[in-house]
Amino acid sequence: MNVGVMLAAGASRRMGSPKPLARTGGHMFFVHGVRHLWSACEAVVVVLGKDARRVRGEVEKEFVRVAGTGALHSDLQAAHRHGAAGLEVHFVTNRGWRSGMLSSARLGLRVALRLRPEQVLVLPVDHPNVKTATVRTLAEAMRVALTSYEGAGRRKTRARGDGFAYALVPRYRHRRGHPVALSPALARAVAADGGAEDLSDAVRRNARIVGYLDCPDPGIVRNRNTRRS
Prior knowledge:
Elements: E1 2-8, E2 23-24, E3 27-28, H1 29-38, E4 43-48, H2 52-68, H3 73-81, E5 88-93, H4 101-113, E6 119-124, H5 132-151, H6 154-160, E7 166-172, E8 175-176, E9 180-182, H7 184-192, H8 199-206, E10 209-214
Helix pairs in contact: 4-7
Protein backbone atom coordinates (compact mmCIF):
# COMPACT_ATOMS: atom_id res chain seq x y z
CA MET A 1 0.00 0.00 0.00
CA ASN A 2 0.98 3.64 -0.46
CA VAL A 3 0.72 5.96 2.53
CA GLY A 4 0.56 9.74 2.46
CA VAL A 5 1.87 12.02 5.20
CA MET A 6 0.44 15.52 5.37
CA LEU A 7 2.30 18.03 7.53
CA ALA A 8 -0.11 20.48 9.18
CA ALA A 9 1.47 21.25 12.55
CA GLY A 10 3.06 24.69 12.12
CA ALA A 11 2.30 28.02 13.79
CA SER A 12 1.07 29.69 10.54
CA ARG A 13 2.45 33.04 11.71
CA ARG A 14 2.51 34.67 8.27
CA MET A 15 -0.95 33.34 7.44
CA GLY A 16 -2.36 34.81 10.65
CA SER A 17 -4.61 31.79 11.29
CA PRO A 18 -4.17 27.99 11.01
CA LYS A 19 -3.11 27.08 7.46
CA PRO A 20 -5.14 23.84 7.43
CA LEU A 21 -8.30 25.93 7.82
CA ALA A 22 -7.43 28.51 5.12
CA ARG A 23 -9.50 28.22 1.95
CA THR A 24 -8.88 28.21 -1.76
CA GLY A 25 -11.26 27.11 -4.48
CA GLY A 26 -14.08 26.72 -1.97
CA HIS A 27 -12.29 24.17 0.25
CA MET A 28 -9.85 24.20 3.16
CA PHE A 29 -6.17 23.65 2.42
CA PHE A 30 -6.51 20.54 4.59
CA VAL A 31 -9.24 19.06 2.40
CA HIS A 32 -7.27 19.73 -0.78
CA GLY A 33 -4.15 18.07 0.63
CA VAL A 34 -5.84 14.93 1.92
CA ARG A 35 -7.81 14.48 -1.30
CA HIS A 36 -4.64 14.89 -3.37
CA LEU A 37 -2.93 12.16 -1.35
CA TRP A 38 -5.99 9.88 -1.44
CA SER A 39 -5.67 9.86 -5.24
CA ALA A 40 -2.58 7.65 -4.91
CA CYS A 41 -2.55 6.43 -1.29
CA GLU A 42 -4.64 3.93 0.64
CA ALA A 43 -4.18 5.89 3.87
CA VAL A 44 -3.12 9.39 4.90
CA VAL A 45 -1.34 10.25 8.16
CA VAL A 46 -2.02 13.85 9.20
CA VAL A 47 0.39 15.49 11.63
CA LEU A 48 -1.20 18.30 13.66
CA GLY A 49 0.49 20.58 16.18
CA LYS A 50 -0.55 24.08 17.15
CA ASP A 51 -4.27 24.25 18.00
CA ALA A 52 -4.54 20.55 17.13
CA ARG A 53 -7.90 19.98 18.85
CA ARG A 54 -9.51 22.98 17.16
CA VAL A 55 -8.06 22.15 13.74
CA ARG A 56 -9.16 18.53 13.91
CA GLY A 57 -12.66 19.49 14.96
CA GLU A 58 -13.01 22.04 12.15
CA VAL A 59 -11.66 19.77 9.41
CA GLU A 60 -13.84 16.86 10.49
CA LYS A 61 -16.90 19.09 10.20
CA GLU A 62 -15.65 20.26 6.80
CA PHE A 63 -15.31 16.69 5.55
CA VAL A 64 -18.85 15.93 6.69
CA ARG A 65 -20.01 18.96 4.69
CA VAL A 66 -18.00 17.97 1.62
CA ALA A 67 -19.21 14.38 1.82
CA GLY A 68 -22.77 15.64 1.93
CA THR A 69 -22.31 17.32 -1.44
CA GLY A 70 -21.25 14.04 -3.06
CA ALA A 71 -17.82 15.47 -3.89
CA LEU A 72 -16.01 12.51 -2.31
CA HIS A 73 -17.71 9.93 -4.52
CA SER A 74 -15.04 10.25 -7.22
CA ASP A 75 -12.34 10.03 -4.54
CA LEU A 76 -13.81 6.77 -3.29
CA GLN A 77 -14.01 5.36 -6.80
CA ALA A 78 -10.35 6.27 -7.38
CA ALA A 79 -9.41 4.67 -4.07
CA HIS A 80 -11.12 1.44 -5.09
CA ARG A 81 -9.22 1.47 -8.40
CA HIS A 82 -5.85 1.52 -6.67
CA GLY A 83 -6.83 -1.13 -4.12
CA ALA A 84 -8.05 0.83 -1.10
CA ALA A 85 -11.15 -0.29 0.77
CA GLY A 86 -12.10 3.30 1.59
CA LEU A 87 -10.86 6.79 2.42
CA GLU A 88 -8.63 6.51 5.48
CA VAL A 89 -7.07 9.23 7.66
CA HIS A 90 -4.92 8.82 10.79
CA PHE A 91 -4.45 11.88 13.00
CA VAL A 92 -1.37 12.31 15.17
CA THR A 93 -0.29 15.33 17.23
CA ASN A 94 3.30 16.55 17.31
CA ARG A 95 3.84 17.91 20.82
CA GLY A 96 7.18 19.31 19.68
CA TRP A 97 5.80 21.24 16.69
CA ARG A 98 7.75 24.37 17.72
CA SER A 99 10.99 22.65 16.73
CA GLY A 100 10.06 22.77 13.05
CA MET A 101 8.62 20.81 10.14
CA LEU A 102 11.26 18.07 10.28
CA SER A 103 10.01 16.95 13.69
CA SER A 104 6.52 16.59 12.22
CA ALA A 105 7.85 14.72 9.19
CA ARG A 106 9.78 12.31 11.39
CA LEU A 107 6.70 11.63 13.54
CA GLY A 108 4.46 11.22 10.50
CA LEU A 109 6.91 8.81 8.88
CA ARG A 110 7.12 6.68 12.03
CA VAL A 111 3.34 6.35 12.08
CA ALA A 112 3.19 5.71 8.32
CA LEU A 113 5.78 2.94 8.57
CA ARG A 114 3.55 1.01 10.97
CA LEU A 115 1.20 0.51 8.02
CA ARG A 116 3.98 -1.28 6.08
CA PRO A 117 3.87 0.98 3.00
CA GLU A 118 5.43 0.31 -0.36
CA GLN A 119 6.15 4.05 -0.57
CA VAL A 120 5.38 7.21 1.39
CA LEU A 121 4.36 10.56 -0.12
CA VAL A 122 5.03 13.62 2.06
CA LEU A 123 3.03 16.80 1.40
CA PRO A 124 2.95 20.04 3.44
CA VAL A 125 -0.56 21.43 3.95
CA ASP A 126 0.45 24.78 2.43
CA HIS A 127 0.63 23.30 -1.09
CA PRO A 128 -3.10 23.07 -1.91
CA ASN A 129 -2.62 23.87 -5.60
CA VAL A 130 -0.80 20.65 -6.46
CA LYS A 131 -2.67 18.79 -9.19
CA THR A 132 -4.08 15.36 -8.42
CA ALA A 133 -2.62 14.09 -11.70
CA THR A 134 0.84 15.08 -10.49
CA VAL A 135 0.46 13.06 -7.31
CA ARG A 136 -0.68 10.02 -9.28
CA THR A 137 2.17 10.36 -11.77
CA LEU A 138 4.73 10.70 -8.99
CA ALA A 139 3.42 7.61 -7.20
CA GLU A 140 3.41 5.57 -10.40
CA ALA A 141 6.95 6.65 -11.28
CA MET A 142 8.08 5.66 -7.78
CA ARG A 143 6.34 2.29 -8.12
CA VAL A 144 8.15 1.62 -11.39
CA ALA A 145 11.50 2.58 -9.85
CA LEU A 146 11.02 0.33 -6.83
CA THR A 147 9.81 -2.55 -9.00
CA SER A 148 12.91 -2.20 -11.17
CA TYR A 149 15.07 -2.30 -8.06
CA GLU A 150 13.36 -5.48 -6.88
CA GLY A 151 14.08 -7.07 -10.23
CA ALA A 152 17.74 -6.06 -10.02
CA GLY A 153 18.54 -7.99 -6.88
CA ARG A 154 16.67 -6.61 -3.88
CA ARG A 155 17.04 -9.93 -2.06
CA LYS A 156 20.80 -9.56 -1.86
CA THR A 157 20.47 -6.02 -0.51
CA ARG A 158 17.77 -7.02 1.96
CA ALA A 159 20.10 -9.71 3.32
CA ARG A 160 22.54 -6.94 4.23
CA GLY A 161 19.69 -5.13 5.97
CA ASP A 162 20.17 -1.74 4.31
CA GLY A 163 17.34 -1.57 1.74
CA PHE A 164 16.94 0.89 -1.12
CA ALA A 165 16.95 4.43 0.27
CA TYR A 166 15.43 6.28 -2.70
CA ALA A 167 13.63 9.60 -3.04
CA LEU A 168 11.69 10.93 -6.01
CA VAL A 169 11.24 14.71 -6.05
CA PRO A 170 8.97 16.60 -8.49
CA ARG A 171 10.37 19.64 -10.29
CA TYR A 172 8.76 22.55 -12.09
CA ARG A 173 11.10 24.58 -14.29
CA HIS A 174 14.11 23.23 -12.38
CA ARG A 175 12.61 24.11 -8.97
CA ARG A 176 12.08 21.27 -6.52
CA GLY A 177 8.63 20.90 -5.02
CA HIS A 178 6.16 18.70 -3.15
CA PRO A 179 5.01 16.05 -2.52
CA VAL A 180 8.20 14.02 -2.12
CA ALA A 181 8.04 10.24 -2.55
CA LEU A 182 10.20 8.11 -0.24
CA SER A 183 10.98 4.42 -0.28
CA PRO A 184 10.36 2.63 3.06
CA ALA A 185 14.11 2.35 3.70
CA LEU A 186 14.59 6.09 3.25
CA ALA A 187 11.47 6.86 5.30
CA ARG A 188 12.94 4.83 8.17
CA ALA A 189 16.28 6.61 7.87
CA VAL A 190 14.71 10.08 7.83
CA ALA A 191 12.46 9.18 10.79
CA ALA A 192 15.55 8.21 12.77
CA ASP A 193 17.71 11.19 11.77
CA GLY A 194 17.84 13.62 14.67
CA GLY A 195 20.77 15.60 13.27
CA ALA A 196 19.39 16.99 10.01
CA GLU A 197 18.54 20.66 9.61
CA ASP A 198 15.29 20.16 7.69
CA LEU A 199 13.46 17.58 5.58
CA SER A 200 15.51 18.30 2.45
CA ASP A 201 18.72 17.88 4.43
CA ALA A 202 17.47 14.62 5.96
CA VAL A 203 16.67 13.24 2.49
CA ARG A 204 20.08 14.24 1.12
CA ARG A 205 21.92 12.78 4.12
CA ASN A 206 20.20 9.41 3.96
CA ALA A 207 19.26 8.72 0.33
CA ARG A 208 21.38 6.45 -1.80
CA ILE A 209 19.75 7.98 -4.88
CA VAL A 210 17.56 11.07 -5.35
CA GLY A 211 15.58 11.13 -8.59
CA TYR A 212 13.69 14.05 -10.13
CA LEU A 213 10.43 14.06 -12.04
CA ASP A 214 9.81 17.13 -14.20
CA CYS A 215 6.14 18.16 -14.03
CA PRO A 216 4.12 20.85 -15.82
CA ASP A 217 2.52 21.75 -12.48
CA PRO A 218 3.37 25.09 -10.83
CA GLY A 219 1.37 24.00 -7.78
CA ILE A 220 4.25 21.83 -6.59
CA VAL A 221 6.37 24.93 -5.90
CA ARG A 222 3.61 27.28 -4.74
CA ASN A 223 3.98 27.55 -0.99
CA ARG A 224 0.89 29.35 0.36
CA ASN A 225 2.32 31.13 3.44
CA THR A 226 0.04 34.16 3.33
CA ARG A 227 -3.56 34.75 2.28
CA ARG A 228 -2.36 36.57 -0.87
CA SER A 229 0.32 34.07 -1.93
